[in-house]
Amino acid sequence: MAVSADAAVVELLDSSNYVDWSVWVKTYLLAQDLWDVVEQDEEEEEEESDDNFKAWREKNATALHTIQISCGREASSLIRNTSSAKRAWDTLAENFKPKPFLPSAGYDKSLYKPLFDAVSRGDWNEAKEFLTLHPDAIRARHPYSTNTALYMATELEHEHIVEELVQLMFEEDLEITDNDGWTALAVAAQRGNIKMVECMVGKSKKILGITTNQNLTPILLASIYDQWDVVHYLYSVTPIEDLMPEKGPYGAGLIYYFITGRKFGMARELIRCCPQLVLTKDHYGVIPIEAFRPSAFPSGTRLKFWQQWIYDS
Predict the structure, then answer these.
(1) Are 245 and 296 contained in the same domain?
(2) Is residue 310 predicted with pLDDT exceeding 80?
(3) Global pTM value
(4) Alpha helices (runs of H) in the chain, residue ranges in sequence order
(5) Are residues 160 and 180 both part of a single domain?
(6) Which of 35, 83, 156, 226 has its CA 20 to 30 A from that of 195?
(7) Residue 300 has pLDDT above 80, yes or no
(8) Do residues 60 and 84 share a domain?
């Protein structure tokens, strides 16, 4: 289906692309200062003054329209009668967000079926017995989902199994990705599970820089999904040189999310290390300075303003 010229996405939402679609739309809404109406509890609307409610209503309509024109036929039918951007977003997440893979009886007759079954149940003792007999199974892929046991345990948030599997793995085993380029670390970061994130990074620092097919690193995924405990940790262990412009758009993207997430101290710190990041394009072609709203700048003094903002004590 053709994408509208003013759509926020390169593909309309369907049953196969929710993860990427939600990142695209959220990033667009953040850039347009519209994401807060998607996050806001509807009960809060009634407490606002008439002027504030009018402003909210306009933003809600714009955000809802953005979501609507970014949907395919099936998705559109689910939110056709919805007047709230938040309800529309939640409805689409409920219907299209991938569910953790749960094997059913008879799904797999391969050698590694006992391992995947044990991991899905959270039974580490059985999984360990199998891995003792078949150590190579630790990097085997499920024949249907094509994901490893570690990826499955991460999705299901079986923290104890994740910790045990990581201990048995070589560093390169943690670099295995799914079909969309997501490592198990990317999943843990997106879910905000700091315990699993620390466990994996403790084994391998290289996985910090592995990007998804959408060119997103684990710290950017955590930022997009407002998992700030994870962001703080990943930022503390990420080499600063990996965020410089010559290494790609990752530092610029991180500054943008710091600013829109109101993590101004972290934004200042990174900009002080490399001021040119403010004018460097991120993975979506956006420069971080655009995160500053026009109302924050006196006319004709945008550059002077952010320079002062950075160096103010």
Answers:
(1) yes
(2) no
(3) 0.69
(4) 18-31, 35-39, 42-45, 50-69, 73-78, 85-96, 113-121, 124-133, 149-155, 159-168, 184-191, 194-203, 218-224, 228-237, 250-260, 264-273, 302-311
(5) yes
(6) 35
(7) no
(8) yes
Any domain includes 170: yes
More confident residue, 236 or 39: 236
Percent of the chain surpassing pLDDT 90: 53
Pick the more confident residue, 54 or 123.
Answer: 123
Quick count: other Cβ atoms within 10 Å of Cβ 240? 12
Q: What is the DSSP letter of 216?
A: -
Provide the 10 A C-beta neighbour count for residue 288.
Answer: 26
DSSP string for 136-193: GGGG---TTT---HHHHHHHTT-HHHHHHHHHHS-GGGGG---TTS--HHHHHHHHT-
Q: With 0-12 CB in 10 A as exposed, 13-18 as middle and 19+ as buried, what is 1?
A: exposed
Mean pLDDT of the chain: 84
What is the pLDDT at residue 7? Answer: 66
Q: Is 16 helix (H, G, I), strand (E, B) or coil?
A: coil
